[in-house]
Design brief:
alpha/beta, Glycerol-3-phosphate (1)-acyltransferase, seven-stranded mixed beta sheet, 8 helices, 7 strands, 41% helix, globular
Length: 278
């Protein structure tokens, strides 16, 4: 696929996302109130619908040749329907869509400016997603307490401990709020590494700077930690241990990218010898 077409398809994906989101928030999700038992039930229903729409969006990006989404792993050590904290790195703009669309009922902490926006706000405020700092919502004033309460009511939670997308050649320092919330709520920590074989939709890079080939994602489980016997005062050390594992895997990803870039292409096929020659 020529790069100019890949740029157009990427722009179209953004258009669909930012035009479709307010329409869904204003038209579709309010209809679920007709069948919801209460406000909490409405939020759960809306979260499930948005998760399915994330899967549709991922499907479209796959069939259009923009990304090759990963096969999502199982969650060993996590009972079906039970809450947990999923901790991952954040290499690109769309890995949050890949994850939220792949794990049923998974929620996340939403950037405050998105929660306030006229485009995404009407949709996000009807889901079980948590408003982040700067949202103007009461829940964001004590994010640790809000996350613990959210987990205690049965919601699984996705958190990017870097707080933003990773840089091209390094990760940001991990904040320990996600680990501490899991330890306080006594729910498992599911550490997942998101790998991508080339830079794509990175922080500070315009969307039209697209690779010439399809970007391939993979999801690798690093560890599932049972926090039931972990004291709260050990959360800081546990967070540092997890960051070390993510950093090591991140450096391997960078090495794999270099190896992929310098790998020689297959030699052209040699012409067959003329069997008629004698």
């Amino acid at each position: 696929m020529p790069r100019w077409l890949r740029i157009i398809l990427t722009a179209w994906a953004f258009f669909l996302f930012f035009v479709g989101s307010p329409l869904i928030g204003i038209v579709v999700l309010p209809l679920l109130r007709l069948v919801a038992k209460d406000r909490e039930d409405h939020r759960r229903r809306c979260t499930r619908v948005i998760g399915r729409l994330h899967r549709v969006f991922t499907w479209w990006m796959r069939v259009s040749g923009l990304v090759a989404p990963p096969a999502m792993p199982e969650l060993p050590g996590v009972a079906p329907g039970a809450p947990y904290v999923m901790i991952t790195n954040h290499p690109s703009l769309i890995d949050v869509i890949l994850l939220l669309g792949s794990f049923e009922g998974l929620t996340c902490v939403v950037k405050g400016s998105w929660y306030r926006s006229l485009v995404l706000g009407p949709l996000l405020k009807q889901t079980a997603y948590l408003p982040g700092p700067g949202s103007g919502e009461e829940e964001s004033e004590d994010m640790l307490g809000t996350m613990v309460e959210h987990l205690s009511t049965g919601h699984p939670l996705l958190v990017f401990p870097e707080g933003t997308r990773s840089l091209k050649n390094r990760m940001h320092r991990f904040r320990r709020g996600a680990v501490e919330a899991a330890v306080r709520a006594k729910v498992p920590i599911v550490a997942m590494f998101v790998a991508i074989d080339r830079p794509f939709l990175m922080k500070g890079v315009p969307f039209w700077h697209v690779p010439k080939d399809t970007a391939t994602y993979s999801i690798e489980p690093l560890e599932v930690i049972d926090t039931r016997d972990v004291p709260v005062e050990h959360a800081k050390a546990l967070n540092a241990e997890l960051q070390s594992k993510f950093q090591a895997r991140f450096q391997r990803m960078l090495a794999e990218r270099v190896e992929h870039a310098v790998r020689p292409s297959a030699p052209p096929p040699q012409p067959r010898a003329d069997r008629a020659a004698a």
